[in-house]
Design a protein that fits this description.
Blueprint lengths: L2 E14 L4 E3 L4 E2 L3 E23 L1 E5 L19 H14 L5 E10 L9 H16 L10 H8 L11 E5 L2 E4 L7 E7 L9 H7 L9 H18 L2 H21 L9 H12 L10 E4 L5 E6 L3 H11 L4 E6 L5 E7 L3
Parallel strand pairs: 5-6
Antiparallel strand pairs: 1-4, 1-13, 2-3, 4-6, 4-7, 7-8, 9-11, 9-12, 10-11
Helix pairs in contact: 1-3, 2-3, 5-6
The structure holds (3R)-3-hydroxy-3-methyl-5-(phosphonooxy)pentanoic acid (PMV).
(3R)-3-hydroxy-3-methyl-5-(phosphonooxy)pentanoic acid binds next to loops.
Length: 339
């Protein structure tokens, strides 16, 4: 008997960044991180068991067969196959299931690759949840899923819950806050694939002279930021989020060899947002960047229209992505008896 599951898992944007690993095998971070889970910027994944038992075999194709969900063309790449098969093995083993069977996976993203949205976070959390759901363990193992997923892609462990998640060591936990519900507007400056991938960035930052005190700075900011989230303190929030984004990019700019994701337009947009009072916390808005050139503007959902009009007036040609905070990965359906 075969069966199929469909899940959707959002990306997340870190405000205190995971950059540098203390254990690269298990993806244990050098410092804690704090993130906002997104909603519709997500990965959809379907996993179907074609045959039970026998040598493990994984078939895949892109989003072509998910007719009812609008996904961008996206192919699971052959170069990612070893990593994905290792992840199947890891999750199967954890649940005491033999590494066997003929499986078919289909997956697609709602956002373009290279959009400054972490596709490994949504992709791996979706895959982990899909495998667990296919084994009937998605509910009973809710606490373990982020840990398993983390071993495939670190930041994916923050996509199982939301909106606010704190990841420390092995554990990612939901944070209680008293903050506004947020929208994330992404300025799509560059869509091409990154020149320095995150695995390399995690290694290279350790050569920066700024690395030595990185943990101290993060410890301070993460405490303060949690205070701001509890108190609804926008001014402190915006200043800390700006500082932290610049801190991560300064690590890139000062590592050896140094590298930068920024383009002239990244700098121009940062300058404009600074002049609008975002850096100093004069307005209810905060700026961050992932490891890429694209700028994220976090604002209260009720101010979304105001900011979109303002941005479009200044950058009429620029593509924007707009999303809101969300609750994390979900199983959409689980069908038995399919073939
Ligand atoms: O999960 P990884 O290994 O792709 O690392 C991503 C790290 C950043 O996105 C740059 C920051 C973060 O905390 O998400």
């Amino acid at each position: 008997m075969g069966f199929a599951v469909r899940v959707r898992a959002p990306s997340n944007i870190a405000l205190i960044k995971y950059m540098g690993k203390s254990d690269p095998e298990l993806n244990i971070p050098s410092n804690p991180s704090l993130s906002l889970t997104l909603n519709s910027l997500c990965t959809w994944t379907e996993l179907e068991q074609i045959q039970d038992g026998g040598e493990f075999r994984l078939e895949w194709n892109g989003a072509a067969r998910m007719e009812d969900v609008e996904l961008l063309p996206f192919d699971l790449r052959e170069k990612d196959r070893p990593k994905i098969e290792r992840h199947f093995k890891r999750v199967f083993q954890f649940f005491g299931h033999s590494f066997s069977g003929h499986w078919r996976v289909r997956s697609g993203n709602t956002f373009p690759a290279g959009a400054g949205i972490a596709s490994s976070a949504s992709g791996f959390s979706a895959l982990t949840l899909a495998i667990a759901a296919a084994l009937g363990r998605d509910r009973s193992a809710q606490a373990e899923l982020p840990q398993l997923s983390r071993q495939g892609s670190g930041s994916s462990c923050r996509s199982f819950q939301g909106p606010w998640v704190l990841w420390q060591g092995e554990n990612a936990t939901k944070l209680s806050t008293n903050f506004d519900s947020l929208s994330d507007i992404v300025f799509l400056i560059e869509k091409s694939e990154k020149t320095v991938g995150s695995t390399e960035a995690h290694l290279r930052v350790k050569s920066s002279p700024l690395w030595e005190k990185r943990n101290e700075r993060v410890s301070f900011r993460i405490q303060e930021l949690q205070g701001c989230l509890l108190m609804g303190n926008w001014s402190g929030f915006s200043q800390l989020v700006w500082e932290e984004a610049m801190d991560m990019h300064e690590l890139f700019h000062t590592s050896s060899p140094s590298f930068s994701y920024w383009t002239p337009l990244t700098r121009e947009i940062l300058g404009w947002l600074e002049s609008e009072g975002v850096r100093s916390g004069k307005v209810r808005a905060a700026v961050t960047l992932d490891a890429g050139p694209n700028v994220h503007l976090l604002i209260p959902q009720c101010d979304q229209r105001y900011w979109l009009d303002k941005i479009k007036a200044r950058y009429p040609e620029l593509e924007l992505l707009v999303d809101q905070e969300g609750p994390g990965a979900q199983v959409v359906w689980h069908a038995e008896g399919l073939k």
